[in-house]
């Protein structure tokens, strides 16, 4: 039997998987919407405690990484394998920067005693507790997706190195890129909802 | 075995040049083998769930303590629910028969993502193992009911953590199956297999696949939140931390109501396959049946809050959800009317699969109509959380999906094993199970209307007769089902060998040898007629 390659099928499969990811986050966005409606003033107050500088920096990093990823796929399609590999590495490096940034941001908050189930958090008004619980859950789940996305892209880089992802067979990298754009897209919603809600 | 067994070994036998063995099954990417793995796991888990249900009924035979204490009882009904819902009925027909027959029915060699397919079986096994682990580890088996409602699920000391992780993994497995089927149906149909020549079983799996893909992630995040609530103390559903427990119910039912269509739609697909074969005429209203599957999938996703009429909702919301619930009845009724019209003036040949299909239509109709009693906002307040709900649910899921699954087993048995079971015993077991089923569940409608609450360990003497009758029914039903499984088991070993097409069906799976070979088709088939065009098709055994 010859090897079966169905790029159209692979992409349909990936898009269906992205739908499931959107709905996974959708449950949390639904909770956010209801609680924002219930506690507008508390969300406003709690949002002020988040660092807009960190948030903005991370947004820029992630959007730029998405651009790199798109360029990596274009480069591969045009046969520039080495350039594509470098761009993928750059994308993953920016994912790393994002996570390091996030680590410092979370550490600062935790240093102030604000984390789920902490004594300081339990003294806050209920709406602010909900805000911070949602903040940790949603950015945490997003962070896990950044890690998974980075791992997938590193694997794509490895496949390029061993010649299994090539300018003719690039669907793995293309699907990995789609996943990465989703990770980016989720953040583009998280950023205004948590940092700019004030 | 057929004469050409050496050239074309069937899919049970080792591939030429290999030794076979257990690894050639549990790491197989052959959709038929994966389907069989699912089938055996599902039957095994069904027997576990059946035993749990049987024990619950035995406890309820008389008021007061009979065979177990209240905590054991709570654990048993929780496990009965978790095992039956997540390990049996959600995967049942799609993962077992869908895997075996969907590719063959559309003239394909396999599903679009064979490796993902075996991966989803492994997730199923891991989920099943974790569900069992949750029983015997921690501080006792979960006692929340399969719905894991907060606040109880957030505070109970029993082993809910492991159980919700099991549910999350099982949900992932279900998503991957749905994703695989949708892609397969879009990409791998043989030449000439247009969308309007697709067997209705495939149409039902297509609609089911969309619900699996779009609804299951919401369950995933919901059970993750339970986990976060218990382990991290996040408290998004905890009123003392600003949370709202009602939102848990919304999120839970946003998945779990569409999930009942994951359960019932494939069974409807099976019925749509069986009826025309034994009525010897094309199915009535092919396009409407296909369309109604999609309509049920769509409308069924918008009705979740009818589980929550008494939980606290605005009157406007109650009316909207009640109205939408009634809307779902329309495509469901379209199917039932079309099935009955298919039988009308057919040259009906009564065989075991047809009996199961008829039992399905009868039981599903009762289940569906009583669903309207629950969907109507006024009457729901009266029967909410009573045995009426238990009866309705079991009529739809056990009477519907269960009998659809048994129908599928009897219909495709000769294709899968190349042998025929004892038809007389099959008919008897269907009748016994059908009678037992009604004795078991019909009294529940009555005691439910009289006010018997569900999930209670004990009850007032005035419900004693109904409960006693119901327990008697559980014995008859269990006897019928054991007879059925024994008969099928004997058929696998000693049944009379049959040819390719013992029922005289016209879909593609009946054109390949029984059991099918490793590679479904010698050459890619070209489809020239519809799935229910019986011109010139004759049974060969």
UniProtKB/TrEMBL annotation, chain A:
Q: Indicate where this protein resides in the cell.
A: Cell membrane; Membrane
Q: What main location does UniProt list?
A: membrane
Membrane topology of this protein: Multi-pass membrane protein
Instruction: State the InterPro entries in the record.
Output: Cyt_c/ubiquinol_Oxase_su3 (IPR024791), Cyt_c_oxidase-like_su3 (IPR000298), Cyt_c_oxidase_su3-like_sf (IPR035973), Cyt_c_oxidase_su3_a-hlx (IPR013833)
Keywords on record: Membrane, Transmembrane, Transmembrane helix
All copies of the Heme-copper oxidase subunit III family profile domain together span 1-198
Q: What Pfam families does UniProt report for this protein, alphabetically?
A: COX3 (PF00510)
Spell out the PROSITE patterns in the cross-references.
COX3
List membrane-spanning regions: 12-33, 53-75, 87-104, 134-157, 178-197
Does the record carry S-adenosyl-L-methionine as a key word? no
Please give the family membership noted in the entry. Answer: Belongs to the cytochrome c oxidase subunit 3 family.
Official protein name in the record: Cytochrome c oxidase subunit 3 family protein
Q: Which lineage ranks, top first, belong to the organism behind this chain?
A: Bacteria, Pseudomonadati, Thermodesulfobacteriota, Desulfovibrionia, Desulfovibrionales
From TrEMBL, chain B:
Residues that span the membrane, as ranges: 37-56, 76-101, 121-142, 162-182, 203-227, 247-271, 283-304, 316-334, 354-377, 389-413, 425-448, 468-489
The protein's annotated pathway: Energy metabolism; oxidative phosphorylation
Where the record annotates domain Cytochrome oxidase subunit I profile, the positions are: 25-528
In its keyword annotation, does this UniProt entry include Oxidoreductase?
no
Domain of life of the native organism: Bacteria
Alphabetically list the UniProt keywords: Cell membrane, Copper, Electron transport, Heme, Iron, Membrane, Metal-binding, Respiratory chain, Translocase, Transmembrane, Transmembrane helix, Transport
- The keyword Iron is annotated on this UniProt entry: yes
EC annotation? 7.1.1.9
Q: Can you state which reaction this protein catalyses?
A: 4 Fe(II)-[cytochrome c] + O2 + 8 H(+)(in) = 4 Fe(III)-[cytochrome c] + 2 H2O + 4 H(+)(out)
State what this protein does: Cytochrome c oxidase is the component of the respiratory chain that catalyzes the reduction of oxygen to water. Subunits 1-3 form the functional core of the enzyme complex. CO I is the catalytic subunit of the enzyme. Electrons originating in cytochrome c are transferred via the copper A center of subunit 2 and heme A of subunit 1 to the bimetallic center formed by heme A3 and copper B.
PANTHER family for this protein: CYTOCHROME C OXIDASE SUBUNIT 1 (PTHR10422:SF18)
By what name is this protein known?
Cytochrome c oxidase subunit 1
Please tell me the species this chain comes from: Nitratidesulfovibrio oxamicus
């Amino acid at each position: 039997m010859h090897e079966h390659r169905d790029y159209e099928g692979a992409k349909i499969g990936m898009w269906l998987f992205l739908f499931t990811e959107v709905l996974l986050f959708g449950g949390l966005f639904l909770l956010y919407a209801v609680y924002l409606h219930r506690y507008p003033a508390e969300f406003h107050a709690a949002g002020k405690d988040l660092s807009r500088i960190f948030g903005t920096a991370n947004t820029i990093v992630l959007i730029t990484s998405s651009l790199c990823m798109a360029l990596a796929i274009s480069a591969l399609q045009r046969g520039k394998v080495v350039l594509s590999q470098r761009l993928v590495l750059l994308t993953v490096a920016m994912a790393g920067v994002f996570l390091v940034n996030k680590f410092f941001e979370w550490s600062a908050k935790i240093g102030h005693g604000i984390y789920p189930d902490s004594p300081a958090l339990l003294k806050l008004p209920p709406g602010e507790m909900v805000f911070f619980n949602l903040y940790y859950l949603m950015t945490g789940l997003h962070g896990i997706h950044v890690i998974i996305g980075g791992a997938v892209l590193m694997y794509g880089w490895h496949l390029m190195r061993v010649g299994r992802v090539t300018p003719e067979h690039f669907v793995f990298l293309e699907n990995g890129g789609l996943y990465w754009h989703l990770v980016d897209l989720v953040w583009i919603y998280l950023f205004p909802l948590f940092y700019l809600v004030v | 075995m057929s004469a050409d067994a050496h050239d074309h070994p069937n899919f049970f036998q080792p591939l030429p040049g290999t030794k076979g063995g257990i690894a050639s099954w549990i790491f197989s990417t052959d959709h038929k083998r994966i389907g069989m793995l699912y089938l055996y796991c599902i039957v095994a888990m069904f027997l576990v769930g059946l035993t749990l249900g049987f024990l619950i009924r035995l406890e309820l035979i008389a008021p007061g303590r009979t065979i177990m204490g209240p905590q054991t009882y709570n654990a048993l009904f929780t496990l009965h629910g978790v095992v039956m819902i997540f390990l049996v009925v959600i995967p049942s027909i799609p993962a077992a028969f869908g895997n075996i027959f969907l590719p063959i029915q559309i003239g394909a060699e396999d599903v679009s993502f064979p490796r993902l397919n075996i991966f989803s079986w492994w997730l199923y096994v891991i989920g099943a193992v974790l569900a069992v682990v949750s029983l015997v580890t921690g501080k006792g088996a979960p006692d929340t009911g399969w719905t894991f409602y907060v606040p109880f699920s957030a505070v109970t000391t029993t082993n809910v953590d492991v159980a919700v992780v099991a549910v999350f993994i099982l949900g992932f497995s279900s998503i991957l199956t749905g994703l695989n089927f949708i892609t397969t149906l879009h990409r791998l149909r043989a030449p000439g297999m247009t969308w309007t020549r697709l067997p209705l079983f495939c149409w039902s799996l297509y609609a089911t696949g969309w619900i699996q893909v779009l609804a299951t992630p919401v369950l995933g995040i919901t059970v993750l939140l339970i986990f976060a609530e218990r382990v991290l103390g996040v408290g998004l559903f905890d009123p003392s931390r600003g949370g709202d427990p009602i939102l848990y119910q919304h999120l839970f039912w946003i998945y779990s109501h569409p999930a009942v269509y994951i359960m019932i739609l494939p069974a409807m697909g099976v019925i749509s396959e069986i009826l025309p074969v034994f009525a010897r005429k094309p199915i009535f209203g092919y396009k409407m049946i296909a369309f109604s599957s999609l309509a049920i999938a769509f409308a069924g996703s918008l009705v979740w809050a009818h589980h929550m009429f008494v939980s606290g909702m605005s009157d406007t919301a109650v009316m909207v959800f009640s109205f939408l619930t009634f809307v779902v009845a329309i495509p469901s009724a379209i199917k039932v009317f079309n099935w009955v019209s298919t039988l009308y003036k057919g040259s009906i040949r009564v065989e075991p699969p047809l009996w199961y299909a008829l039992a399905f239509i009868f039981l599903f109709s009762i289940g569906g109509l009583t669903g309207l009693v629950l969907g109507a906002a006024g009457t729901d307040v009266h029967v909410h959380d009573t045995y009426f709900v238990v009866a309705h649910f079991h009529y739809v899921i056990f009477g519907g999906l269960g009998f659809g699954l048994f129908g599928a087993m009897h219909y495709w048995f000769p294709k899968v094993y190349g042998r025929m079971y004892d038809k007389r015993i099959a008919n008897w077991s269907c009748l016994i199970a059908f009678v037992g089923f009604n004795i078991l569940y019909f009294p529940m409608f009555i005691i439910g209307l009289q006010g018997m609450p569900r999930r209670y360990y004990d009850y007032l003497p005035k419900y004693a007769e109904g409960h006693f009758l119901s327990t008697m029914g559980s014995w008859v039903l269990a006897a019928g089902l054991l007879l059925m499984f024994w008969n099928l088991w004997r058929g696998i070993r000693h049944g009379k060998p049959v040819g390719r097409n013992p029922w005289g069906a016209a879909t593609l799976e009946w054109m390949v040898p029984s059991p099918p070979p490793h590679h479904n088709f010698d050459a890619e088939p070209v489809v020239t007629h519809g799935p229910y065009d019986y011109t010139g098709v004759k049974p060969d055994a």
